[in-house]
Structures are given as structure tokens and as C-alpha cells.
Amino acid sequence: MLFRLSDVKKSYGGTEILRGVSFQVNPGEKVGLVGRNGAGKTTVFRLITGKESTDSGDVFKANGLKLGLLDQHVDFSTGETVHTAALSAFKEIHDIEAEMRALEKTMETDHSDPILERYAELQIAFEHADGFSYAARAEAILLGLGFTREMWSLNTATLSGGQKNRLGMARLLLSSADVLLLDEPTNHLDVNAVEWLENFLTEYGGSYVVISHDRYFLDRTTNRIIEIENGKAVTYTGNYSAFLEERALRREQQLREYENQQAFINKTQEFIRRNLEGQKTKQAKSRRNMLQRMERLDAVVSEKHGGNFGLKKVERAGNNVLTVEELSIGYEEKRLASGIDLSLHRGEALGIIGANGTGKTTFLRTVLGEIRELDGEIRWGTKTNIGYYAQNLEELEPRNEVIQELRRVAPLADNGELRSFLARFLFFGEDVFKLVGDLSGGEKGRLALAKLIYSQKNVLILDEPTNHLDIPAREALEAALDEYDGTIITVSHDRFFLDKIATQILAFEENGVEVFDGNYTGYHDWKAAKKSVRTDGSSDASNGSQRLEVTPRKESTNDENEERTKLSKNQRDRIEKKIGEIEKDIQMLESTIGSISAEIADPATSSDPSKLANATARLTNAETELSELYSEWESLSGSI
What we know:
With 640 residues, the chain is an alpha/beta fold. It is 44% helix and 19% strand. The protein has helices at residues 41-49, 82-87, 91-106, 113-128, 134-144, 161-173, 191-203, 215-221, 240-275, 281-293, 360-367, 402-407, 415-423, 441-454, 471-483, 495-501, 520-530, 558-564, 569-601, 603-606, 609-637; strands spanning 3-12, 15-25, 30-34, 56-61, 67-70, 179-183, 207-211, 224-229, 232-237, 320-331, 334-345, 349-354, 375-380, 386-389, 459-463, 487-491, 504-509, 512-517.
């Protein structure tokens, strides 16, 4: 065990964030920590590192555990350069090296055994700490994260916020931490740097826990997912795609168990109501006591909606929406890209990728006519009506209320219609009267998308539309864009998003611009094949227990009702006795299923494949037996 959270609870200002979180992380595990914005993921990190304390529950850590945290805000010592900041991760090696240099000076005049022995010890320690290759490792990581050799001498005080975060990551990856805690590590990386980080973590021998909204990144770097939902933690084996499949199966199972129990409860309550004052008072009271003792299953909570981004119907544009021929973009003093040729038809989606500063946003602004092209030709088709989503959300007026901001694109709409539309973007009640300047980044992003969608444009130009959205909101946006009748041009670092919507990729690469028919994964594999590099995709295997199909209960017919009246008193008594026995068996099985489910949720089981397989098999058998008992109970109950 590296660390374990046991029934941890945490509240802020009376709002309960964590309501009994329990999970364990073991050596070698590569964990993705997922959940909606505000679910408590970063709070978990702060509790693990000791920056905050629990309200109740415990955080256990292995003796001497060294944690490495990539925080959202990184600071450096005054006067540090990029290179020295990266090398500061090797303080232990520097200390050993400094003592060795001092002893070498001493050994010029002193050859005593204690001096020589200490020097030998330091040499072994230096080699054990990888002292001969640490500088090369630091340089490789700096280059991988986008710090060219020309940048190594820069003072850290001159770096942008994004550069400081990347340098903080470099320092962390060079540390000798037992477990890395990575909070949104891809936020300030371009596609090339993200791919480098994925490869680094894939080959990394240690453990890490990563919080990320980048689903493609989670797919390639994790072998276990922990979801924080409704203040609890649920563990899934496999990467993000496997998690989605297993979570759907688990919720299906939970829904079935809940519905079965509710049917059982409702029928029992009806029996009690009809017979409490009649001839079967004793049986009715017995069943009432049984219901009072029964452990009720929680209703299955449907996934909190990420927003309903349903796009309005738009006017049909001509078939040829955009044609670009031999286009050069940039500025008089700096040409960013040349020779761009592409043709975009109605209903297609162009995904634009490339490193920061290569010209992606400049391309958008050029085709929009905000920047003049240097060479070439841009032709828009007939009946095109263009809407633009800027990644810096510059179109929003911070002094407006939310509803006033939406009214800017619909001056004649009444308040009721505007409020209904904003509710689809998770602005409820008094939220619509918040000032735009007071909104979070995610809220501003949703409002900007609401404006764009309400305006009914048939061409959407989107600059990093998923930047401020959590995973459920991204999924909702993807579903809406998939149904959109118009044409889409989008810059995005979200490769999962591009896989979902892109029909064509425009890639700004170091050696020029490339156009590819297909989505991001298709382009990535094609590019890798061009370089004769073997591509190894991630597995989507999932571990879900077999799911049972419950036969719907038939409605009673008149013949069946007539048959019941023919039963003798002895027959009815025997049936009622059997029903009572089945009810006791149902109680015992439900208790057993609850115990096995708790066992599966226990980190000690979920992290051990053999234990997990055994528990899953026992759960399946218990569910099968319970389903049979419910069917028998319903059949017998319907006969009297």
C-alpha cells in the first residue's frame, strides 16, 4: 500500500463535498481520478498531501512515503533559470556531489581510512541515485515538454503561467517521488507535448494518480479509474473507455435490483393494506415487520446532466461551404504557414491541430476575414451564416447579467424563452441574473456556447470549445454537434472530442501543413505509419459481472382470478407458508448481495484480480438466485 483513504468526509461552509470516500492506491498502479467539476478531486489531493485535514475518517500513508504533487500554481526561487529549476529536483545528488568535491580536496593531503571509506560510500550513493545520467534526463524532459535549448537560460520570473506549469511538471517528473499526484497535467501542453507525456508515463515504472478532463490521455495512461460521485468513490479496473462500459453495466444492475425490490415492497404493502384488519392480520403484521427490517436500496441516481446543447435547426447552406487554395497565413514580419489547400462540404467537420504558435487561431481569423491572407484564395459558399466561439471568451460582456448576454443575439425573445434555453446550459433559477464577470471559466464557456447555438448559424467556427468544460459537458456538446446539420471548423487539443466529430484534420506540423480525411486517431496512425513507427493502441477490456434479464410480470387474467377462488384453505395456507419462507430467503440474499458489493468496492478486493473475479462470480450467483426467488414469490403471491 502507498496510501489509503478510509471513510473520509470533508465539508466547506456547510456544503458536504466528500461523504465517506474510501480507496487505496498500491505500488505500480496508474490511476485516473475523475468526476464533475466541484466533485472533490483536488480536495482528495490536498488531503493526501496534508495541506488540509479531514472532518472525519482517516488518511493512511506508508512509512516514509514521498509524494510528488503537480499543483495548478507553481513557484520558483528568485534568480533560478529554466535549467537550474529543473536540476533542483536532484538536491540529494547535488549534496552528494558537493561532499565528494570537498573530500577530493581533503584527500590531496589526508589519505586516512575514514576519509577513503566515506568517499567510497558517497561514490556508491552517487551511482545508486543515477548521478551519472541525471543531467541528460533533465535535458530530455525539458525538450519533451517544449523547452528548447535557447530557453534554458531564461529566468523563471519571465515565464508565462503556462510555461511555469510545464517547468513545474518537468521538475516533478525528475523527482524521486514514490507516487506522483498530477492535477490536470495536460492543461498547458500542446498536442506534441501531451503525446510525449503519454509516452513518458506509459514507460514510467512508478505509481501516479492523475486528475484530467482529457479522456484520450486517460485512455493511454491509466489502468484503473476512481470516480468521485455524490461524495463517494467507486473503483473501476481498466482505462477510461473500460470505465465507461463497466459503469453503464453497474448502473444497469443497480437499477434492476432497485426495481425488483420496489416491486416486492409495493406488493407487500398492498397485501398489508388489504389484510391488516382481516383474517390474515398475523401474516400482514409479520410482513410489515419484515419491511421495517429490510435494508432499502438507494434509488439509482441518473448521471447529472452535462448540459443540453441541442442545436436548433439551421438554414441549409450550399454544398461547397469553404474552399481554400494555396493559402499563406501570418503577418508581414512572420509567415506562419503556406500552401494550405482544402475543401469543406456541408455537414462536414474540420478539426485543426498543431503546436502552440503554429498558426491555428491565425487560420481561423484569416478565413473569418479578421486578418488578411498573405497569398492564396479563400472562397465561402452560398448561404453561409458564420458563428465564432473564441477561446478567450472575448465576446462576453462582463457587466451584463447572464440573461442580458443571451438577449444580445435575440433582442425580441421573451424572458421565459430565454430562461428555458439557459436552463439547457445549466443556468437555473437565480443563476440567470448573475453577472457574467462573476462566472467561473466553465460557466462562461457554457454561456458563450448558448449564445452561439441560439443564433442559429449554419457554420460554427470554434476555438478550443471544450477548454472550460468538464467531461459530462464535453460529452453533451459532442452529442449535439454529432446531430448538427451545419458545418463545423474547430481548433482543439481534445483528441477524444476530435475523434467524435471530425471528418477531416488540418495539422500544422513543423515541416508544413497536412490535410487528412478522417478523425484524429486516423491521422495519428497515418502519421506514425509514415515515420515507420509501430503504433500500439490501448486495451478496452472491461471487468463487468454478467447481467441478468428479468422477465416482466404478466398482468392477471380473468381465468387466473377465477382459478384463485378454487383454492382450498389448506392449499392457501401452504402457499402462504411458502411465501413467508421465500421472504426470509430474499432478506438473507439481499444482505449477502450487499456484503459482496461492499467487498467488491473495497480497494483490497478491486486491486486484486483473483479476489475481484471470485467476488464477482459469487455476486452473479446470488443475483441469479434472488431473481428466481422474486419470480417464485410473485407467482405464488398471484395465486392467492
